[in-house]
Amino acid sequence: MQLTLWTYEGPPHVGAMRVATAMRGVHYVLHAPQGDTYADLLFTMIERRGERPPVTYTTFEARDLGGDTAELFQTAARDAYARYKPQAMLVGASCTAELIQDDPAGLAEAMGLPCPVIALELPSYQRREHWGASETFHALVRGLAKRDAKPAPREGRRPRANILGPTALGFRHRDDLVEVKILLSALGIDLHVVAPLGATPAELQTLGEADFNISLYPEISDTASRWLERQFKQPTVRTVPIGHGATMDFIREVALVAGVDPAPALGLGSRMPWWSRSVDSTYLTSKRVFIFGDGTHALAAARVARDELGFEVCGLGCYNREFARDVRAAAEDLGLEALITDDYLEVEAAITAAQPEMVLGTQMERMIAKKLKLPCAVISAPVHVQDFPARHSPLMGFEGANVIFDSWVHPLVMGLEEHLLTMFRDDFEFHDAAGPSHLGAGHGGSASAETLKVMPNPAPAAAEEPQGWTADAERELLKIPFFVRGKARRNTEAYAANRGISAITVDTLYEAKAHLSGGGRP
Amino acid sequence: MSAGAMATAGTALPLLRERGQREVFCGLTGIVWLHRKIQDAFFLVVGSRTCAHLLQSAAGVMLFAEPRFATAIIEERDLAGMADANEELDRVVDRLLERRPDIRMLFLVGSCPSEVIKLDLSRAAQRLSVKHSGVRVLNYSGSGIETTFTQGEDACLAALVPELPATTSAAPELMIVGSLPDIVEDQFLRLFADMGIATVRSLPARNAASMPPVGPNTLFLLAQPFLGDTARALEDRGAKRLDALFPFGAEGTVDWLHAAAKAFGIDEMHFRSLVAAPRERAKRALERHRMLLEGKTIFFLPDSQLEVPLARFLANELGMVPIEVGTPYLHRQHLARELEALPEGVQLSEGQDVDRQLDRVRSSRPDLTVCGLGLANPLEAQGLSTKWSIELVFSPVHGFDQAGDLAELFARPLRRRDMLKV
After folding, report:
1. Contact A44 B89 (CB under 8 A)
2. Cβ-proximal residues to A270 (8 Å cutoff; 6+ apart), any chain
3. What's the pTM?
4. Active-site hit among A68, A261, A280, A427
5. Which of A34, A83, A352, A364 best tests the B interface by mutation, with the highest count of B CBs <10 A?
6. What is the DSSP letter of B146?
7. CA distance, residue A65 to nearest chain B CA (Å)
8. Which residues in chain A touch residue B27, judged by CB atoms under 8 angstroms apart?
9. B293 pLDDT higher than 50
10. Residue A364's closest chain B neighbor by CA?
11. In terms of domains, do A53 and A131 share one?
C-alpha cells in the first residue's frame, strides 16, 4: 500500500478514455461500478468539451456481485452499440471490475458485435494513466491497421507523414499540433493521419500508407510507433520540438527522413534567440530553476532552461518511471541526481531543499511554489482548467518557443526592479511585503501569511531557527531583497559551517558573499 | 393547498425506476466536505488509484491546503498476497499519524476494491484504536457499489453513532443531524436558543471531543434528506426523529423549526412571533428571483437526494414547474411530507439509465436541468441551461437567511443566458 495525498496520474483506464475521447467513431464500454463516471468531468469541465466522452459504464452494484455482472456487461455493450453505432469498440475493466474477473474481452467476443472490438488489458494495480493511453493506442493501431497497406510510389508526389500522440486532455496538444502542421507545410510534406486526436478507426486502417511517422508525445505514441516501424518499415521522427533548438533539430530530422530541403522551415525561426540575447535578459543568467513533470516535458524544459535562457537547473525529475532512464541521463549531464517519484511529499521536500529561484513543474509544483513563495510556470500534465486557455498557446514549434520565453520569464521579478528593491528597500510602498508589482496586490507578505496559516506542517527548512546569527548580521540580512534572502542565508550558514564559525557576524555574511561570487552558486 | 389535497397529489405521483449507467459520484466524495467540518478528523480511503484520482478531481480546488484526507493505494503485491494487507495498512497509518499529530479521529474509508477483496476495516479500526491511544479509529464504506454521493456522509455519521456517549440528563435534548456549514449551524442554534430549547447539539460536531451524547430523551431533526442509516442508528439508541419538511426556503425552514417547537412544548405564539421576521426576510429575498423563475420548467437528474425537497421549494415558493425529479434513492418515510407537497404532474424517478434520461431531457427541453459536472457542458452545448448539482451540496443553502442564495443558484444560469450576447 502506498500513502497518497495527490496523484500525478490517474488510473490506466483514464488513459484509455483520453484516447477514445480524442478519436471519432470509437466507443469504450468500461466494466465499472457506480462512481467511476467521475472521469467524464475531466473532459467536460477541465477541457470544456461540449460532448460526453464516448464511454459507457456498466455500473454494477454490491448486490450484483456473484450474480449477473457478466450479463450486465453484455447488455451495456449491446445497448451502446445500438445507440452509438461506433466504427470500432473498446472494451475493458476499471480497477474494481478487474478484481471480479468477468473477462470483458471474452464476453464481447462471444457477442459477435458487428464492428471490430478491441479488448484492453490494463492492470490497474500496477500501471497508470500514460501507460494506459499508450497501451490503448497501441492496441487500436495493431488491431485496425491494414497489414497490406503501403505508401504509393514515391515518384511525382510529396512525402506523407502520420503524426502520432496527441490525445484528449493533453497538455497543450491542441495548439502544438497547429505548430507542427505549420512546419510540415513549410517543408512540403503532406499529412496522412493525425492520431488519436480527431482520427477515425477507418483512418487508422490506412496508417501504413504514410512514408514515415512523427512520434510527438512518446508517453503515448512510442509503443505504437515502434510497432509501425517493425510492421511497415516506416521510419520514426523522435525529436520532440519543444524549444527553439529542439524545433530546429526536429525540422532537420524530418527533412532528412522525408528527403526534402529543411531551409524553408528553418527560416521561419522564433524570437526566442534574440529575446534571450538582448541585454534586458541578462538578469536571467544562472537563475536557479527546479524542473519536474512528465519525462518528455521535463527533458525539454531542461534543455531550454540551460541552453536557451541561461538558467541553472538545480533540480530535475519526472513522475513517470517509464522515462526514468532518459531523465537520469539528462540529470547526470547537468551534474544532478534525478528525482524519480510520484510521491508529492517527496517532490515538495526536494524543492524546499534545493531552494530554487523558480519552479517549472505541474499544477502540483505550482501549489508547492505558492507555499514557498517562489515564481512558477506550468510545463506539464496533470492538467488543470487553466492549461486549456482560450488563446493559442503551444509549447512546440517556433511559436511554442516564443510562448515559453514569455511564460517562464514573466513570473520572475524583472531585471531593473530587482536592483531598485535592493537600493531602496525601506521605501514605504516598495518593500518586501509588497511583493513584485507586476503580479499585482496580494502577492507579497500578506498573501504569504495566509499561506502559512493553511499549512499545518510547515516544511522543515522554513521552520528552522537561525543558529548563531548575531543581531547585527540578522539586520543586515533583512536588507537583502526577499527573493534572494533565503539563498544568502543558506550560503552564509554553509560557509560558516564549513569553517567552524559559530557566530555569524556581518563580516561573515560578506566573507561568504565574496567567497561565493563568481564561483558559481553552490 | 390543504393537507388533504397535498396527500392526494403525493401518493398519486408516478414513480419510474430505472437501472443502467449512473452518472453520479460514489460516497467517497462526501470526504470533501466532511474533512472540513470535523476539524481534527482524517479520512483515509483504502482503495485504488481511481479513488485517489476521484477525490483529487472532485476537490482539486482545495489543493492549496494540505488536506486531511488521503488514499492508501492497494498495489499488486497486496492483492497477490505478497504483502499482508493489514500490516501494510498499519504501516500507512503509523506514517500518517506521525506526520499529523493533531489528528484525534481517523476514519478508515472502504472503497469498491477494498469491499470486493473483503478487507475487514472494522477489525483494523479496533486494532489501530488500541495501538494509537488518543485517536479514535472508525470505519465506514464510501464505495460506489454500495453508496451514491451523499450516502457517504450517511455512512460516516452512522459509524459515529455507536461511539456517541449516552445522555446523562433526563430532560429532552435536541440534536441536529447532518453536516451544515458552520454559519448556518450557528443561525439555527441562535433560533433554537431564542425559542427556549436549552440543549441543542449537532452531529457531526466540529471536533472529535464534542460529539453529542444520545439516548431515549434525544429528539433529532434531520437537516439533510439523505441520512437514512444515521437515523436508524440513532433510533436504535432510543432517539426519536421529528418529522418535518427539510429546511429549504422560508416554508421548509418554518416547518422544520416548528417540529422542534411543538416537541419541546414551546408556546405557539412565541414561536410565530420569533420566526415572523426572518421568514419575511426570506420571502423578500425570494421575491427578487420569482420574476425570473416563475413558470420555468426544471428537470432534476439524480445526484444528492436533495432533489425532492428542492423541487418542492422551487415549485411552492418560486412557482417553478418540475418536469421530472430524479433521485438516486427515494426514502419514502423521511420524504413523506415532501412528496405530499409536490405539485401534481411531476414525474418521479429513482435510479438512472443516463442515456434514456437524457433522451427525456432533450425531448422535454426544460428551462433548467440540474445535473452533475460530467453532463453540464454537453447539455449547454445543446442549448440547454444547467445547474451543477454539486454546488447545492457545497454551498450554504439551508435556513431563512440562505433561502435567497438558494434561489439565486437556480436563477443565475438563466440570468446569464439572457445577459450573454456572444
Report:
1. no
2. A244, A247, A398, A399, A401, A402
3. 0.90
4. A280
5. A34
6. T
7. 9
8. 35
9. yes
10. B63
11. yes
C-alpha cell at A253: 530530422
A–B CB contacts, 8 A cutoff, strictly below:
193
* A59/B148 CB distance under 8 A: no
In what order do the strands lie in the sheet containing B136-141? A2-4, B69-73, B41-47, B105-110, B136-141
Please tell me which of the candidates B66, B115, B376 has its beta carbon nearest to residue A44.
Answer: B376
Chain A residues inside the 8 Å CB shell of B88 = 1
Rounded (10°) CA dihedral A507, A510, A512, A516: -160
Q: Rounded CA gap, B320 and B314, in Å?
A: 5
Q: For chain B, positions 102-131, list CB contacts with chain A under 8 A.
A: 102, 112-113, 115-117
**Do both A366 and A386 map to the same domain?**
yes
C-alpha B185/C-alpha B178 separation (Å) is 10
List domains and CATH numbers for chain B.
3-22+288-419 (3.40.50.1980), 27-147 (3.40.50.1980), 173-271 (3.40.50.1980)
Residue B17: its H or E element: strand B15-19
Judged by CB atoms closer than 8 Å, whether chains meet at A96 and B74 is answered as no
The cell for B110 is 472502504
ipTM metric = 0.93
Q: How far is A18 from chain B (nearest CA, A)?
A: 15
Q: Is A250 exposed, middle or buried (0-12, 13-18, 19+ CB in 10 A)?
A: buried
Q: Is A362 touching B (CB cutoff 8 A)?
A: no
Residues of B in contact with A42 (CB under 8 A): 57
Contact A128, A320 (CB under 8 A): yes
Q: Rounded to whole angstroms, how far apart are CA atoms B122 and A386?
A: 41
Number of other residues whose CB lies within 10 A of the CB of residue A301: 27
Handedness of CA B226, B230, B236, B238 (dihedral sign): negative
Q: What is the dihedral of CA A149, A151, A152, A154, to 10 degrees?
A: -160
Query: What long-range pairs does B73-77 form, CB within 8 A, spacing at least 24?
Result: B73/A1, B73/A2, B73/A3, B73/A4, B73/B47, B73/B48, B73/B49, B74/A1, B74/A125, B74/B46, B74/B47, B74/B48, B74/B113, B74/B114, B74/B117, B75/A1, B75/A2, B75/A125, B75/A126, B76/A123, B76/A125, B76/A126
Residues A284 and A222 in one domain: no
Range of the domain at A234: 160-266
Among the partner residues B71, B89, B355, nearest to A4 by beta-carbon distance: B71
Three-state secondary structure call for residue A166:
coil
Chain centre to alpha carbon of residue A335: 23
In this structure, are A367 and A307 located in the same domain? yes
Note if A387 is an active site residue. Answer: no
Give 10-residue mean pLDDT values along chain A (522 residues). Answer: 91 98 98 95 95 97 87 96 98 95 93 96 96 98 97 94 98 98 98 98 98 98 98 98 98 98 97 96 93 98 98 97 96 97 93 94 92 93 91 98 96 68 57 51 39 36 58 86 78 88 89 71 40
Distance CA B251, CA B228 (A): 23
Spatial distance between the Cα atoms of A196 and B72, rounded to a whole number of angstroms: 33
In angstroms, how far is the first alpha carbon of chain A from the final one? 38
Residue A482 sits in a domain of what CATH number?
1.10.8.550
DSSP state letters, A438-475: GG-TTSSHHHHHHHHHT-SS--HHHHPPPSSB-HHHHH
